[in-house]
Design brief:
about 280 residues, alpha/beta, TIM Barrel, nine-stranded mixed sheet, two-stranded antiparallel sheet, binds 2-acetamido-2-deoxy-beta-D-glucopyranose
Length: about 280
Amino acid sequence: MMEYIGATGAPVKFDPVPNEDGIDFHFILSFAIDADPSGNAQNGKFSPYWAYTLTPESVAAIKKSHPNVKALASLSGWSLGDTVLRWYNPLDNQLWISNAFSSLKSMVEEYHLDGIDIDYENFPKHNSTFAYCIGELITLLKNQSVISIATIAPFHATTIPYIELFDNYGDVIDFVNHQFYTDKVRKPKGYLEAFKLRAGQFDKNKLLPSYEVNGRGIQGDAFFYALSLLEENGYTVNGVMIFSADASSSNDYYYERKSQDFLLNSTSVWKVVAQITY
Ligand SMILES: *[C@@H]1O[C@H](CO)[C@@H](O)[C@H](O)[C@H]1NC(C)=O
Ligand SMILES: *[C@@H]1O[C@H](CO)[C@@H](O)[C@H](O)[C@H]1NC(C)=O
Ligand SMILES: *[C@@H]1O[C@H](CO)[C@@H](O)[C@H](O)[C@H]1NC(C)=O
């Protein structure tokens, strides 16, 4: 499981989010940003901007009580306050990589993190250094055993730079948290088509279906029918990404519970219903 948490600033906590022993449950702290509080870029020096309630102590505590839990910091996100965040080409790539490495190493140590997620959402029109800088950063963080997990979060308008990253550095990228809710599909069959498209662009075994709680794209139990349809069509559902815990408290984490049921139980009721319905 991949669960974004902390992006809205609401005082969210890890404890209420249900996680099952048999599942690697990744909390993705949202977000670590290469900017000062006014949104000015800091040449690779990342700072944590997730909800203040997600303290280093609370990360340590949830990991101690639930050894299946891992914690990641997601890099960038859409905006910080009123500033829309974007990838910018650093003046000196090596300096940016070195600053990012040092600042993230400190953050990983302070917050007991296991990895990073890449969620840059805006790019310069041409000639981006994104794939090189981020690919080298992940490679270095893994080589120095600072992190053990790296994931990426493309959406429909950012596939090109992420494909470039994945093509060149796919061996250090563990999962693709594609934001299917931006693909504007609301039915299981459409979801299957979107999954086929993204599976061709990335790696079908690293690609995770995703769901936006109270948000865009497929909503409600149709999501679970879609997961069944993926399996009927020969895909393995290796995990589920949910955005986000901040919204899920409003429905008692229904989608987290059902997703984990699905992952634990390959003969789930959803499969039966999907066969009847679709
Ligand atoms: C764009 O690409 C050219 C040729 O590869 C390179 O010389 C130049 O530095 C690049 N510019 C930026 C802003 O990355
Ligand atoms: C780190 O990189 C060096 C040089 O390429 C390599 O010999 C070493 O095995 C790598 N270590 C890890 C943990 O990947
Ligand atoms: C798996 O799903 C079936 C059908 O809903 C249910 O009867 C069974 O109890 C589930 N098994 C587990 C281990 O959850």
